[in-house]
Structure formats: structure tokens, C-alpha cells
From TrEMBL, chains A, B:
Pfam families for this protein: RACo_C_ter, RACo_linker, Raco_middle
Alphabetical list of InterPro entries matching this protein: 2Fe-2S_ferredoxin-like_sf (IPR036010), 2Fe-2S_ferredoxin-type (IPR001041), Beta-grasp_dom_sf (IPR012675), Corrinoid_activation_enz (IPR052911), Raco-like_middle (IPR041414), Raco-like_middle_sf (IPR042259), RACo_C (IPR027980), RACo_linker (IPR040506)
Name under which the protein is recorded: Na(+)-translocating NADH-quinone reductase subunit F
Originating organism: Pseudooceanicola marinus
Gene3D superfamilies (alphabetical): 3.10.20.30, 3.10.20.880, Domain of unknown function (DUF4445) (3.30.420.480)
Length: 682, 682
């Protein structure tokens, strides 16, 4: 009886099998289905298939690996090492041959389906599984005796060497084909796009010779106010550059409905807005390529998330229908398009654009992206996810069911419609504390760590000045005013006599609280007015009422945790948000920020076609709630006007904050529109 | 025992079955798989499903049909008849219900797969089976409670009502969708494109309400010299308009190789030529729509056939590789593209363009179209098909095997490179006869039926003059000169002394034959010179050598029949062509003209997607012969220089024509380059 073939064990997969002496490690890996990359197909010219053999005793695996378990370095490995450097302990798995029992570690960077690390544990794992992959091929030269086209021979090579069947090609690629094939002397690297739909693979780009490194995608979050994009390496998932710019459509209207109105009032207005946003997307792509120092032609894919109105305007579809019942989308499905259809100029002319599905007429691809990033359908506990923006997208769900709606909060949370409001920029007040005894405030402005009562504040703030209050600042100011007894549960700001603070100054028939008086230095007087309170009350009531509507539908009156998404969500203090009743009562530590979850969702869809299939399936399963026609919405909205709420108890909030039981309603004329209640119930 | 259900018999299919009383005739037809059209899906609003019931005794079918075999006219039929008129004896099959045994004739115009009549018996039957079809649907209106996109509801309706699954749509169609759906009050007719590739169906166009009539395709034959197109009704196959124009690329070079040279000498020359031809294609499409009086947006498809150089130039691919060995095509496969990729401006922006496959680097989609039209693979006898143009495409085959090559005949057959040559236009000599005794000619010019020796010729020819000789005229002139003993087998024109005709005049060191002397009337002296003979000899030798090469490969030295294709082929007399040895010897009645077979092939591919699949398969099975590298080509070429041939016997020709055994070679210096042979062998 002869000795058995050597045993080859791969880690971390644990896959194992016996192979004849002389088998290349790459061949063994492929036969076992081990996730081991290769662009050149085992020709020893790319570095993708590197592995780290381990030597010695492995009692766990029951093997002893000797120094001669693999064949010695051959000339290919030596040449590779001398020209490009093979890291210590590494072998090229296509060259190293099995000689005896061996344990082979596949490092993360040699895996095709690399895991990309995400910061928060509860989020969806991101595995690299992009639509576009690079394949090096050697193409048969043309033969007069057996005539066939260059493209047909390239396609045959990709089929024989990489299993790519039914390759398709567009005219711009065809026109470039003969040049690249001849420049590479019939050795080329093909970027082949195969997505999750089962559509025929597409030849996106062709590089002469071996092209191992560098092809990219753009993950774009197209918001009403800002457009953010991440330039992502489609091989590693690494973000190579990130940037944002203002949505140029703002000049047509601050919020979505004013843009829809613009279209209704101005024939051709939709085309103007489409051109504006497409120009901005192109500019942003070019800027990111410049920032990362890459050739923009290497950007071969993009994903886009946005709300339904932005979706239609970016696609060149009149959004008027979205401004009126029944809020009919022209299309709700995910879309896969040539990026050039949206006028992307600098990037690869054949780049593909994937747009996530819309959930409903008011709940867009941005909400789908949040669902993809935050994966409520995988949450064991009931999670409420709020993407705070000019429109708030709200998701509620767990493994059994997911609900979604949107609520028209308006731009107050972003500092608009606030008397001293401004966008988040240096000089804007972003944090506020008010002493409950003295009623004196202190604050921090964006761009400086010191508080306003720190000795070094005054000389340093000269650079920016104190210019206004940003979105998170107004939330904190209002919450602190409520906690300090300057404002009552109905939202009424007390007079100087009622509050005992000279900072409460008359403002017409109401009062305002002076946060900062910079007039002596030529700056503004920054106050919080009764009108500011009303604007925030309207916004937060809409937000809360939307959440309540989903809770009603789910049949619950509490949630287990709250996730605040959106750039703004990252800056809201959970305590302050809850004092104002922006979010339902939960333990404060169960309120987390997901950052730009919509942007993250776009990046996941960019890197992983399985995620595209998943979100398309999940969106179809999400229950959509239309706030505009829900009979209970108005009642929830009115009850949510009080701070934190007229009727819902906030026991978790009460554990950490004692809200003063004050009332400034003197029974006089109508400053308080929310009713005559004097105290919070419950 | 109850009576059996009534028997329903459909003619001409003969399909029959029993159906319960009250079954609509359309339903019975569908269940039996009878080919019966309907656009509206049985709603009684289109006229497509008309049938003619037959009454009385039908011993052949064993039934007696009473007057009450079908339900009486209902209100739908009455309304239809009063508004649009129902022809005598016709019923709408969706309304008429079976009441008793009945025989139902489905007239040709009610069949989905109508046969289109073709003139010649040996050609492929053309069955209407276009990629684009119209389907009327009623689409669900948007519902806030169950939100979905307009497109998704349209696609669902098409799937439920017409079995169209996986509908796709492009951005321009999406942008138009909401307007059309609302204009049609959610009743629309969809033009759905589904070709033979199995690719997902595409929504090409959407009409509000019912659109029954009128959607069109263009069949384009893009030649080096002329571009011809047929505007075809995609429902009936009827040609609604036909037109042609000169290929504007002629200014860059008369023949293909001079155009390739232009590209090699002038950077950017390919783009110039691409723009020129695309502009001409667009103009032609617009002109045809104008001629037919139709909205160009109703043109939703086009097919294109052309030689490989035109193919690459139209597609925007540098044709340089086609000008040098190994004559590599960038792509040889059939292509399905957006017509807008080739800049078609006026027609439907989503129109699809199908380009037939190329056979080899010198044998293009035009040859594939000839193969589609003439179907050599279905011929029991061995057929030689020659498409005569600036380049000749040659096919040889029968049911066992088909071979193809191209041969560089040059433009002499089209009247170029001929001293008195001109394009076929009024005033050009197109027919020639020479009296073998007097050696006097008579001729006809294009635009007049009288011969030049008819009494009324002179006064009438003043309108055009006698301006030159066209391609078919030069063939006839040379053949007549050979038959009249004015020119010998080597192609040498005799002197006045040798021939006994004063029309043989000195022309340098050679002689020319005077066909017409119009100088007295201010017209030209029209002669056939020795140089003209040499040009035609070169062209016909190339043609014959190509055919011989295929016959060698096939292992035969005769063919059963010859088909002359191409516009020029229609005007060549078989006898004259054979006297010159342009084609191999066959009985004269076995030489037929196929007219513009390439254009016909384009029209077949336009009307029948099964034909597209068939020609793609057939092209893959055709054996390609590259004349440029075949060692025997040169020998065949030299031997073919003689008229009709130096060595091949022409027994069939000898049965009808006695060629005089003359020789005008006096042993003097080199007018006869083909050798010193004095007489035809065999």
C-alpha cells in the first residue's frame, strides 16, 4: 500500500483535501472552493494569489508540516520578488507546488470576497462582491484561414479562461478594441461587469497587458441640500476620497415641495433642475478623481441613493406627480443604467449606474439605503431608524416585519426657518448649556473646542465670530431652555418676570431668549424666538407623529432602540432630542447614531451585488405607510406639539432629567396655539 | 346522454375542437393555437381578430353550419361597424360566440404570422415575425395604499394580459411614461421589442389608447457607392417607400481600399467618413418617412447590411485592419444596438438597429444578407450566387455545404475606369448589338425604348444626348465585339484592315471601336478602347477566379445554376456575361437575376426574427475562402483573362453562340498581356 497523497489544509476556511505531489497550491484551492483571488489566472504575473504557508506541528489539524512541504521558489517567484517584492513568508500559490502535508493561510487581501470592516457591531457585514471584476486573458491572434472578429476571440478567451459566457459590448468599447489588443500584444485585462440580475456580462473596459490595481466606484448620496460621494476601491472596498457639495437645485427651492412647485409654475423647470443636478454629479466625480489622484476613466461604476423627488429630477422625469396624491412614482424598481445617461462626463464612458429601489412615493432610495445599512429586518429587538433631513425617513422593524414612512419635517432641523439659524459652518453655535439656577447660557461654536465661558474664548472667536445657530445648536438651545424653566411644556418662552432672567426679552407680543449679544463687537444679537420654537415644534411633531404611526401599525407603544441616521443625526444629543420629544422614550444609551447611513447603504450596494439583490427583496417586503392619508397622523401631530409630549409618558427620560413644571400661559391672546394645557400628563 | 359541444373548425389551418356554447371564437382559436391576431386582447376595440364564418354543408369536414352557428351581432360589433366598417361576411372573433358547429376562415390579414409574397419561387418564404409587436393594455391606477411605480404597474399589466415577462425600459421612455398613461386614461398600446436572442423585452414606445396601425422598420443596404433603404410596415411586410442616395463617402475614395487608404493617410479620416455616412443614413430615413407620409417616430426598428469596410466605418471603428492581412474584423457577430448609436436622428429615439453578421474580413453582412435572401443552404442543386458590385461577393453551395469569398473586381463593372464610362443615368448606352456582317452597332440609351437605328431615335435623344456607356452597356459592347469578330479571344481589338470595319480606329499603339460619334451634334465620340477591354478583363478575371476557387474547394468543375445579385446583376444579359467569361458555363436559362438580394435579405431580417437566428447560424457554418492568400487564385486569374476563358470549356455557351476564331496579335509589342495563345481551347 502506497502512502496517501499529501494533505493540504487552508486557513481560515478550514477546507482540506489530499492532492498529488506537484499540484500547484492555487489549483488545490480552486478544487476545494477556497476563496483565493487571481487576476492572471495562474500565470505568475499578478500578485493576487499570495498565500502564507505555515510550518511545524499543528495538533489541531493533526499534521506536521516540514520545510519541504512546498516546492522551493521557482524562477517566476524569484523574478516577481526581485521586481515587485514578495512579502516575508509569502508564496505565489500558482507557483508553489504541494510536496507534503501543508497548512496554507490565505491572507485577507488574497481573498476575492474580502470582508470590509465596519465600525458598528449591529450593522450588516460588508463583503467585497462587486459587479465588476478584472480578468487577464491571452487572446488568439487573427487568422485569415479561420476568420473571426477580435471581439469574438476575446470573448472566447474570457469564456475558456474565466467562464464568462455571453459577453456583450457596446459601440464605444468596440471602437477601442483593436488598438488595446494590439498594444497589449493580444494580452489584455478585461473589466467585466456582471450584476445580480442575470443580465448578460458586459465588457466595461480593456487594459493592454496586466492591469492588477485600481478600478473604482462612486457611492453617491444625493440629498435635497447636499450631495455626498465616496470614491471606493472596488477591489478592497477602501474609500479613496470623499467629498460633498451643495445641491445646486437649492436656487429653485429649499425643500422638495418648493422644487416640485417650481416645476408646476415654470414649464421646463424640471429640465433646468435635471441639468443642474447632473452637472453637480459630474463635477463631484471629477473632483473625487482629482483628490484621489486617479484617472477618472478607472471609475467604472456608481451607485446612487436619493429621495423620490431627487430621483425623478436626476433621471429627467417630471416630479409633479410626487407633489400631489396619489404620489405616483414613475418607477419604483432599482435601475441599472449607463452612467452616461445621467451625463457623467469624466468617468469611464461605459460606467454603469445602479440606483436603489424607492420604497414609496415619499420614501425613496435613500430610505432603502438606510434599510440596507442598518438592516432592521435582521434586528432581534424592535428598532426605530430615523433619517433626519429636510424630509425624515422613518423605519420601524425587527426580524418579523419592517415598516416605513416619511414625514415632512421641513428644513427647521437644518437651521432654516430659524431667526438666527444658519448652516453648520465655522462660527455657528452647535452646543448649548443653560444653568438652571442663573439661566445663563454657555455655548460652543463650530471650529473651536472651548466653551464661550472659557477664558480663551473671546480672543479666539474673533476669527469666525459668533454668527448664528446651526441645526444641532437650536435643538440643544431649546432643550436646555425647557430644562432650565425658560420655556414651558407648551413651548411658550417666559418673560423676564416669569423666568427671573433678563435674557428673556420682549419680542412683539411674545418673548425671546438672548443666547449671545455680539452687537458691541459688530456681531449679531442671537436669540431664540417664539417663532423659532414653533418651527421646531412643527418639525418635531411631524417626526414623532410619523414614528407613532408606524408604532400603531406595529401594535406597540414603545420601541427597544432608536438609530438616528443622516449627517444631522450624528450631531444630535440623545438627551436633548428626547427632552424635545423628537424621538420616543427609550433608555438614552439605546439611542445611537448611524452617521450617513444612506451613504453607507450606497457604498454597500456598490461593493456587493448580493446586497443589491437583498435590498430589492427587502424593499418589496417593507410595509409602506402614507402619512398624508393616515387618519391618525393629525391627532399624533397635535399631541406631539408639547415638549416632550402632551400625553405619551417618557419614563426613561424622567430617570435622567427632571423637567420643571412651569407654565407661562397667562390666558392672554394666542401665542400658544397648542391648547391651554398647563402641565405634562403622566 | 347529452349532445356533444359544438365543433369549431378553423381554415386554412384545419385545426378543430369542441367548445361549450357561448365560447368566443377568439378563445377557441387561442386554445387550439390558431394563428389569429389581436392587439386589444379581445376587448372588441381593435379590428385585428376578424374572421369569416362559412355557412352550409362541408362534406370535407363532415359538418353542416346553420345560420345560427354563431351568436348574432352584438353592440360591440354594431358600434365597430358603424364607426369603422366591418367588411361583408366578417365577424369580430372576440365577440362572436359559438352556438353550433361552425367553420371559421382566418383571412391572411388576421394572421399574426402573415406570409409575405415573394416573386421568385426558389427564394426563402418571408413570414411576418417581427421583433416589435403592439399590445393594448389597461393599467392599474396608482394607489397610495399600495404604492408602486407607473412602469411597474404597466409591466404587470403586460405580463398578466400578454405574457410579457421581465420588461425593460430606458430613461427616455421612463420620462415619457406618466404623460402617456394619463393621456390614455391608463389605457395604452405598448410597442414591445423581443428579438431572437432571449434578451429581456424592451418597451420601445407607448401610445395613449388603442394604436392599431402603423409602426415601421427600415431595411438598409449600405453599399460603397449607393445607399438604398426600404421603409417597411412591420405588421404587413408591405414596403411603404423605397429610396436611395449616393454614399457621401465617395468623395474620400471611389472604392473601399482607397477609403481605407484615406484613413491611413489622414488621421481622423475615419471619423470624417463615419460622420458622412451616418448623416446620409439619417437623411435617408427622414426622406422615406416624408415619402410615405408617416411620423418618423413610428419607425421603431432598422436592419443594416453592408460590406466589412462600410460596417466598420458606420460603427465608428477604424477600418485600417481590413486593408491589410490578416484582414481582422473588430467584430464579426450580428449586432443589436440602439439606432441612436449610429446617430439616427428623426426616427424613434429608442429604435433598435440589427446589423447582420459578417462572414469574414472581406465578406460582409451584405453577403450574409444575400445568403439569407437566396438560401443556398436550401438549394438541392449547386448554386453559384454572385453579388456584383465594386467588390464581388460570391457564394457557392447546396444543402450539403456553403462556401463564400469576395473578389476585388474594382469599379469597372459600374462604368468607372472606362474611357467613355459613366454611371447608369439617362443618356448612357445600356444595350448594344453589333451586326456580325457589317460590324455596325446599334444601341439603346437609358430613358428611351427605341434603338439607335429606329427612325424616331435621333429627334428624341436630343433631350438627354448620348453621353457615355454605363456598366451593363460596356459588358454588352465587349461581348458583341467579341461575337462580331472585332475583338479576339485574348481581348485584342482588331484594326480596320483586320476586321474590315472603319469603326476600328487607331488609338496610340492599339485600336478602339467607335460606338457612336456625336461630335457633329456637339456630343462626345464614344469608343471602346483597348484600355477599357483590359479594365473589364481584370474585373471579370477576378470574378471568375473567385468562383473557380470556390468550385475547387467544393471539388466540382461545373455548377447547376447561377444567380446574379446586386442592382447591376439585374441588368446584365446572361449571354453577354458568359461570352465574356464573367460566370462559369451553365445553360443560359439557368442564369437568373436576384435583384438587390442584399437589400431583400435586410428586409427579411427586419420582418422575421427567426430569419435573424437562421442567418447567424448559417454564417457560422459557411466555409470562408480568403482569395488574397489562396495559392490557386493567381493562376485562375491569369487563365480567366481570355474571353471567355483560356482553358475552361464553355459547352453550354457554344450551343447558342458561335464565337469567331480570330486573332489580332501580330507578334508586335505587348498590347496583349495575357500571353500569345491564338485560339480558345476545347
Amino acid at each position: 500500500m502506497t502512502d496517501p497523497d499529501p494533505l493540504v489544509i487552508f486557513t481560515p476556511s478550514g477546507k482540506r483535501g489530499r492532492f498529488p505531489v506537484g499540484t500547484p497550491v492555487l489549483t488545490a484551492a480552486r478544487q476545494l472552493g477556497v476563496d483565493l483571488d487571481s487576476v492572471c489566472g495562474g500565470r505568475g504575473i499578478c500578485s493576487k494569489c499570495q498565500v502564507t504557508p505555515a510550518y511545524g506541528d499543528f495538533p489541531k489539524h493533526g499534521v506536521h508540516v516540514t520545510d519541504t512541504a512546498l516546492s522551493p521558489w521557482n524562477s517566476v517567484e524569484e523574478r516577481y520578488d526581485s521586481t515587485r517584492g514578495l512579502p516575508e513568508g509569502r508564496r505565489l500559490s500558482c507557483q508553489a507546488q504541494v510536496q507534503g502535508d501543508v497548512v496554507i493561510d490565505v491572507p485577507a487581501e488574497s481573498q476575492v470576497h474580502r470582508q470590509v470592516i465596519r465600525k458598528r457591531a449591529e450593522t450588516r457585514a460588508l463583503t467585497m462582491n462587486p459587479a465588476t471584476r478584472l480578468h487577464y486573458v491571452e487572446v488568439a491572434e487573427p487568422d485569415m484561414h479561420d476568420p473571426s472578429g477580435d471581439f469574438e476571440r476575446l470573448a472566447a478567451a474570457l469564456e475558456a479562461q474565466w467562464g464568462v459566457t455571453g459577453l456583450t459590448v457596446d459601440l464605444s468599447m468596440l471602437a477601442a478594441l483593436q488598438g488595446v489588443l494590439r498594444k497589449g500584444n493580444w494580452r489584455v485585462t478585461a473589466a467585466v461587469y456582471r450584476d445580480h440580475t442575470g443580465a448578460a456580462p458586459r465588457l466595461l473596459h480593456l487594459f493592454p497587458g496586466l492591469h492588477e490595481d485600481g478600478f473604482y466606484g462612486l457611492a453617491i448620496d444625493l440629498g435635497s441640500t447636499t450631495i455626498a460621494a465616496h470614491l471606493t476601491d472596488l477591489e478592497t472596498g477602501e474609500v479613496r476620497a470623499a467629498s460633498g457639495l451643495m445641491n445646486p437645485q437649492i436656487r429653485f427651492g429649499e425643500d422638495l415641495m418648493s422644487r416640485v412647485s417650481y416645476v408646476m409654475m415654470n414649464p421646463g423647470g424640471d429640465t433646468e433642475m435635471t441639468n443642474a443636478v447632473r452637472g453637480a454629479l459630474s463635477d463631484l466625480a471629477a473632483e473625487l478623481a482629482r483628490d484621489a489622484g486617479i484617472d477618472p476613466a478607472l471609475i467604472v461604476e456608481a451607485t446612487l441613493v436619493c429621495n423620490p423627488v431627487m430621483h425623478h429630477l436626476a433621471l429627467g422625469i417630471d416630479p409633479t406627480e410626487l407633489g400631489q396624491a396619489p404620489f405616483a412614482l414613475t418607477t419604483s424598481s432599482a435601475l441599472s443604467l449607463p452612467a452616461s445617461d445621467l451625463g457623467f462626463a469624466a468617468i469611464n464612458p461605459r460606467a454603469r449606474l445602479y440606483i436603489l429601489p424607492c420604497i414609496a412615493g415619499h420614501v425613496g432610495a435613500d430610505a432603502a439605503a438606510v434599510a440596507l445599512s442598518e438592516a432592521p429586518e435582521k434586528s432581534e429587538d424592535l428598532v426605530l431608524i430615523i433619517d433626519v433631513g429636510t424630509n425624515a425617513e422613518i423605519l420601524l422593524g425587527n426580524t418579523s416585519r419592517v415598516l416605513a414612512c416619511s414625514s415632512p419635517t421641513g428644513p427647521a432641523f437644518e437651521g432654516a426657518q430659524i431667526s438666527s439659524g444658519q448652516r453648520a459652518a465655522p462660527g455657528a453655535i452647535e452646543k448649548v448649556e443653560i444653568d438652571p439656577v442663573t439661566k445663563e447660557p454657555r455655548f460652543r461654536v463650530i471650529g473651536m473646542k472651548r466653551w464661550s465661558d472659557d477664558p480663551g474664548f473671546a480672543p479666539r472667536v474673533v476669527a469666525t465670530g459668533v454668527t448664528g445657530i446651526c441645526g444641532s445648536g437650536i435643538i440643544e438651545a431649546l432643550a436646555e431652555m425647557r430644562m432650565a424653566g425658560i420655556m414651558d411644556a407648551s413651548g411658550l418662552i417666559g418673560s423676564a418676570e416669569q423666568t427671573g432672567s433678563a435674557r428673556c426679552i420682549p419680542d412683539g407680543r411674545t418673548h425671546a431668549y438672548v443666547l449671545h449679544d455680539g452687537r458691541a463687537e459688530g456681531g449679531p444679537l442671537i436669540t431664540v424666538t417664539q417663532g423659532d420654537v414653533r418651527a421646531i415644534q412643527l418639525a418635531k411633531s411631524a417626526l414623532y407623529a410619523g414614528a407613532r404611526l408606524l408604532m400603531d401599525e406595529m401594535g406597540v407603544d414603545r420601541v427597544d432602540r432608536v438609530v438616528l441616521a443622516g449627517a444631522f443625526g450624528a450631531h444630535i444629543s440623545a438627551k436633548h432630542a428626547m427632552v424635545l420629544g423628537m424621538i420616543p422614550d427609550v433608555p438614552l444609551e439605546r439611542v445611537t447614531s448611524a452617521g450617513n447611513a444612506a451613504g453607507t447603504g450606497a457604498r454597500i450596494a456598490l461593493c456587493d451585488i448580493a446586497a443589491r439583490a437583498a435590498i430589492e427583496g427587502n424593499v418589496a417586503r417593507i410595509t409602506k405607510i402614507e402619512t398624508a392619508i393616515a387618519p391618525a397622523f393629525q391627532a399624533h401631530f397635535v399631541a406631539a406639539n408639547a415638549l416632550p409630549h402632551a400625553s405619551d409618558p417618557f419614563p426613561e427620560l424622567a430617570k435622567v432629567v427632571q423637567l420643571p413644571d412651569v407654565s407661562f400661559n397667562t390666558g392672554g391672546s394666542g401665542a400658544d396655539g397648542s391648547g391651554r394645557r398647563r402641565r405634562r400628563r403622566g
